[in-house]
Amino acid sequence: MTLQTDKKGKAQDGSMESSEAVQSRLKQLGPSFTFEELWELHKQSVGKSRPSIWRRITLQKKGMILGCSVILCAILLTGIGLYSPSVGVALQKVFFIDLFYKNGRGGMDSGLYQIEKQNLGTATDVSVTDQDIRLTVAEVFYDGIQFVVNYQVDYLQKKKIKEEDAAVYYKYKFKDAHPAMIGTHTFTITGDHTFIGTTVFNTEPLPENARLHIEIRRIGTTDGNWDVTVPVSLDKTKPLIKIVRPQIAGAYEDKKFMIDQITFTPVGTQVVIETDHSESLFCFLEDDLETRFNETGGSGGGRINFSPLSEINPKPPYVTLLVHDSTSVQSNTLHQREEYADYHGPGSLPVTLKGDRGGTITITDVQFLEDSTVVYYEASDAENQKPFLILRDSSGKGFVSAPNAVRLSRESFAYKLQYPKLPSERFTFKLIVNEYSPEPKEPVKIKIPIDWE
Fold first, then answer.
1. Where along the chain is composition biased (Basic and acidic residues) (predicted)?
2. In the β-sheet with 444-449, what is the strand arrangement from edge to edge?
């Protein structure tokens, strides 16, 4: 598969900057998606007919290519070290996944942060130079669900690269394996001579000690040969992976299915379902506190990927699979309701907005950080725990959160959402609520015990 770059933010040449200056500058790289792009995707995702989990996997692929959903592996590059060793050392400490999220158009799950937080990646020194362009693979991550490859590109002779130079055209191949893969990527220009890239792939299980061959015959507008081969290993993640094989049979009306396996990793959760009704069934996953997992796509074969377990509840005694039938809502009509509240300082809070099915979302606090805006809220019930909440400035521009909401309490549905830095500390909360008439039938709920011993 050949992927191309999207437009990304640029930074000035950092060849003579200090470590602190480089990290500060990189933190200022903002998301490139527009609210209008995300809103169009949102409207498309809430039509009258809800797709099946397998059809939604295809839609997730499109969404990932557009940069909205996901699901997820990363390739990261840091080339400034060619010009200044001290800057190179500084960039090794930069949160590459943070750049991936900032340039990945938002709306993604935050599970990939655990790669750097828990040092789960495997460093490599694989490097190849051709046509005065050097590609260096810095790190590889794999957890049995998805793999991440981090690399950097240095233009050794070019005075200043342009947007069209920040692209890698590649094909991935595994030795003795041909897994189905769905992926996305971002590229970020970090200086006049360098850019970093991030590629995310959901994949089927790979053979032990697999080796990934990356065929690269074009970087930017330059043809050449930068083929590299890197190891893909479970050595770092295997001790942290929990596999449950429920073998629980269920049915939604007359549609039967079998929950074959659930895999929990520090970065994600994968559910494997066997069914003859893959075109109509779709599902959600919750823990024992009713925390809803975020969907991140799938890799085919009945595999559906979700976000990892929450940090406040890392070992739940059970999870619940909620199974729906898309045909049961095809005749339902979607209505969208909008709720508003102005924010003009701490005295504006708390403020309560009307949510879905009689529930509420109470916004309790707003924090303005150096490079982001954080909103704290509490939902009245599980149904309203993941609201579609937009911050709208005085010009009418909307800001959406990225990545997804993080639960903060075991006793209540208290969450925080992180938004880009707003141009003003005065804005409007805009809550969009989807309502169906008539209400869809209740899903089938299947409780799956987990023995963590």
1. 1-11
2. 281-287, 318-325, 444-449
**Does residue 332 contact residue 440 with C-beta atoms inside 8 Å?**
yes
Looking at the predicted structure, is the pLDDT value of residue 35 above 50?
no
The per-residue pLDDT for 131 is 96
**Three-state SS for 259?**
strand
Task: Write the burial class of residue 335 (CB in 10 Å: 0-12 exposed, 13-18 middle, 19+ buried).
Answer: exposed
| DSSP structure string for 338-387 | EEEEEE-SGGG-SEEEE-GGG-EEEEEEEEE-SSEEEEEEEESSGGGSS-
Which tokens sit at 292?
């809803």
Q: What integer best gives the mean pLDDT of the chain? A: 79
Q: For residues 67 and 7, give the distance between their C-alpha atoms in angstroms, rounded to a whole number.
A: 11
Residue 389 phi, psi (nearest 5): -110, 125
Taking the C-alpha atoms of residue 79 and residue 156, their distance in angstroms, rounded to an integer, is 10
> What mean pLDDT is predicted for residues 49-53?
41
**SS3 for 183?**
strand
Structure tokens at 10: 């640029």
Strands 255-264 and 295-300: unpaired
pTM of the shown model? 0.76
Query: What pLDDT digit, counting tens, does each position of 384-410 carry?
Result: 999 999 999 999 999 998 778 999 999
CA distance 381 to 371: 31
pLDDT in tens, 94-111: 456 777 777 754 445 668
Per-residue model confidence (pLDDT) at position 174: 87
- Please name the residue that has the structure tokens 């470590």: 19
The H or E element spanning position 215 is: strand 210-219
CA dihedral 93, 95, 97, 100 (to 10 degrees): -110
Run of H or E including 59: helix 53-66
Whether the CA torsion 30, 31, 34, 38 is positive or negative: it is: negative
Q: How far apart are CA 200 and CA 186, in angstroms?
A: 9
At residue 280, the 3 state secondary structure works out as coil
- The two structure tokens encoding residue 329: 């809502």
